[in-house]
Structure formats: structure tokens, C-alpha cells
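We emphasize that the prediction below concerns an isolated chain of 320 residues; any contacts that depend on oligomerization or on bound cofactors are therefore not represented. The input was used exactly as deposited, without trimming of termini.
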Amino acid sequence: MKKIISSTLILAALAVSFTGCLKDKGFENHTYGINDPDTQPPGVGFPKAVASKVTIGVELDPNPQTVNDLVFVNVLAGNPAKTDVHITMVVNDALRTTYNSANSTNILQLPPSEYSVALSLTIPAGQRFAQVPLILPSTNSLNPNDTYGLGLTITSVDGGYKIADNFKNLFIEVGVKNKYDGVYRLNGVHNRAPYTFPFETEVEMWTTGPASVAMYWPEVSDFGQPIGTAPGAISWYGNAVSPNFTFNPATNEVIGVSLQVGAAVTLGLVTLDATADANPDGPIYNRMDVGPPKTIYVAYQYNGNNLRRFYDTLTFKHAR
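Result of the prediction step, given as a C-alpha cell string:
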């Protein structure tokens, strides 16, 4: 089972820094950073509730994935729990619909069949926090073009603790990405005269399927392939040439290319190496080198024309 593990040490520090953070006027208007533990009962809450939503990225994968240190509850008090503290939560989809209404977004509900999470946990005596894992048995049925939301609300706690009103709701946004997804530095050459100038820019490769990614150019806010039009100048054909590459995930070979947007042209792979073509980069194309850094080499043409070729080298920079 795959595990996606965030830092327990960071969350442990949060558990201390949020001691006493119950909802009251002084806390909310920032008169003071924490409440006086002698003037209010101790409380519990989600430390990650400080954000309106918490976004995670998971792989598009048929195998189970486990996300730890996300559904994490801590004691909001000056001292650790004196006895075991039992906390109950419920799934609250109103957090998603409220967020969508407030932010004009379209985060979809994470289907109940696509996740499991325990709705009760115990903070042991002498401790400040506890967590339960979020498990996704498979993400293959999720659409990588969408994001999904899961809302959780603390509804009860024992031991004389209070539920902190401003830390009782946790809204999680889940995005699905494959291993080819990310932000890349693109170095490329187009062989169509007069647009034969080498170019360099930053592009994003967006997950479009279990083993496919489409090239997105942030400078134009659309899918498409950049072109060098003069020394230091970059343009494009518009999204009429918007490559979507499909890989063999076992070998990382590029096995197909299609249009992500529109249907103005047809795209086809070109299999070449340095001895078969005058391309200055010189690698064997249509594959990903796992690196580091992870690097994708693609060569393709449109409309079956040998004078309409692109030779692209994409070097991974960071996750998208």
C-alpha cells in the first residue's frame, strides 16, 4: 500500500502552538495569540482548520493510497490530556458546497466509495494529539480534470473538553495526478521555416489519464506547444497544436500523441536519435528518463508532414 506521509514533527509543533485557541473575541481580533487556560475550559480542534481548505495531490493509481497526518486533532490547552480524550466526527458535505459558493469553484464531492476514514479517534492520556489515516482504495475512477472535496466536522468530545468553534471543520480538496504530471522547463526546436529558432520556457504537464499528460503553457493560460519565432521570441499556433502524450507506465516510453484541444490537425510521434536527425539536443526521443531530474524527450509532427516537427526536452522542476 502506498503511503503519502506529511511531517508529524510539524504537526506536533502545531499542537503546542495552538494550545488554548478556543473561539472568543480576544483570539479572533488578535488581541492575544492564545487564550488563558485558567479562564476557559480546554478544547480540541483540527490544527489544519486555520486554512479554508487543505489541498492534497494523489496518484492516479489502482492501488490503495494512505494519507497520514491530515485528519489530525490536537488538544487546545496548555497541558497534555490528563485522561484519554475521545472525539467523534461526521462527514459534512456542506463545507464543500459553502466553499464552492463563496469562491465560485466547482469542487466535486469525493464519492463515499472512493475513500475510508475513521470517524472517531482517541488522544491518549499524556499526549496532545492523534490522527486517523485517509485511505483511498483506488483513484482510477476519479477524473484528473476535476478536484474532489471531503468535509469533516468534530461533533462530540468527552473529558470536559470543548469543541473549538473555529477549529472544528476540516475541508480537504483532493486532486489526482500521475507520475508524469508537473512543472517542467521546456527546451525545444521546431523545424518549420522560418520558425526554426530554439526556444526555452516553462510549461505544465497536466494529468489527462492514468499515463497521459497534456502540455499547458501558463503564459497563454491554455494548452498548446510554444514555438521560437525569432532569437529570444516565443509564440505558438494557438491550441490547434496542443499535444497530449501517452506513456507506457512500465517502460516510460511515449507510445502515442493526440490533440488535447480541438481537431484542427493530426499529431504523430517521430522516433529518432541523434544520428538520424540534425536536432541539436541529441537524445533518443519519446521516453522519460526518471533522473533525477526527471526528463521527458518527445519528438512529434502534425498533419503527417516531416517539415512540421517539434523536438522537445522537458526537465522537471517541481510538482504542479
